[in-house]
Inverse folding.
């Protein structure tokens, strides 16, 4: 019988990794975060601290809990320092070669034969990462949603060789310890949510591109007509058009279905660095 997971590692402390480290630390786990260098680690720590401070300001966390959570997180810049972790969650950019390198190094460094390595990938098939490791049966996907402290959903993606005990142990941790709502998906690019969401956003972009309707009217249609909190184009701007394109490209590679192919307008906007909120302009303009 494997021990309950208490020691967690996170690779990458960007938007998603910082959020994953925060929820794990708040839930009482010991967390080691690995970043590229000291500056990136400091930025990651700031991200976690600011998010915890916002929770205190909103009365959702008391200052003592914030300090205790922060004290449970430490930062390193060498993947070998994750050797004693029972679960490592990788959250670096959506670039397959970078993830493969990390999976290979971390799996070789693990001390514990039962240690699990998971990816927060939005679209890369888990099997591609599993085969880079020394233990493909201890690899799975754990896809958190942004912002991690707020969004309850986690997609759990076993590959066709993931050990059933590994799946159950990961689910016990994510659901029982982190309090997330876990849904299980087969290992297909896009998993459940993006397989439905990406064709929807792409259809909205094609509608705009063809002159069928304006960006404002497309978004108003879904907000006022379908009670969505945001229209598809504003949501694409929030996520980042580069991210949408990466995910769509991965899904197109997998299925070769036109409904996943990036419309030329999306490709041109990414090439022009019109990525949405993060660059100040996407389908709409934002003052930064
Ligand atoms: N942004 C979203 O809304 C979202 C939602 C769900 C899943 N995801 C997925 O989560 C993953 C991370 O996305 P993100 O938006 O947080 O990216 P990000 O660019 O904000 O963060 C990536 C971090 O990884 C660090 N990093 C890069 N290489 C590293 C290495 N070798 N070792 C340690 N750290 C390294 C970078 O310094 C950076 O801080 C991606 O796979 C993405 O598809 C993103």
């Amino acid at each position: 019988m494997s021990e309950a997971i208490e020691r967690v590692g996170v690779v990458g402390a960007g938007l998603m990794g910082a959020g994953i480290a925060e929820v794990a630390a708040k839930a009482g786990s010991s967390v080691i975060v690995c970043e590229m260098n000291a500056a990136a680690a400091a930025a990651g720590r700031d991200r976690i601290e600011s998010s915890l401070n916002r929770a205190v300001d909103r009365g959702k966390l008391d200052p003592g809990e914030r300090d205790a959570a922060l004290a449970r997180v430490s930062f390193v810049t060498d993947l070998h320092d994750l050797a004693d972790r029972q679960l490592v969650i990788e959250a670096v950019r959506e670039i397959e070669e970078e993830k493969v390198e990390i999976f290979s190094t971390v799996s070789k460094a693990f001390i514990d034969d039962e240690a699990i390595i998971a990816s927060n990938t939005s679209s890369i098939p888990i099997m591609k990462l599993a085969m880079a490791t020394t233990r493909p049966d201890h690899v799975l996907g754990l896809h958190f949603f942004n912002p991690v402290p707020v969004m309850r959903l986690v997609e759990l993606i076993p590959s066709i060789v993931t050990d059933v005990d590994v799946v159950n142990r990961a689910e016990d941790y994510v659901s029982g310890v982190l309090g997330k709502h876990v849904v299980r998906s087969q290992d297909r690019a896009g998993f459940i949510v993006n397989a439905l969401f990406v064709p929807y956003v792409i259809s909205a972009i094609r509608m705009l591109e063809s002159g069928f309707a304006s960006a404002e009217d497309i978004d108003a249609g879904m907000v006022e007509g379908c009670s969505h909190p945001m229209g598809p184009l504003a949501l694409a701007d929030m996520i980042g058009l580069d991210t949408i394109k990466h995910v769509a490209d991965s899904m197109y590679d997998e299925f070769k279905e036109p409904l996943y192919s990036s419309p030329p307008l999306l490709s041109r906007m990414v090439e022009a660095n019109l990525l949405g909120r993060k660059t100040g302009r996407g389908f709409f303009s934002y003052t930064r």
Notes: The pocket of nicotinamide-adenine-dinucleotide is lined by residues 11-17, 34-36, 40, 91-94, 98, 102, 120-122, 143, 145-146, 239, 243 (CB under 6 Å). The chain has eleven helices and eight strands.
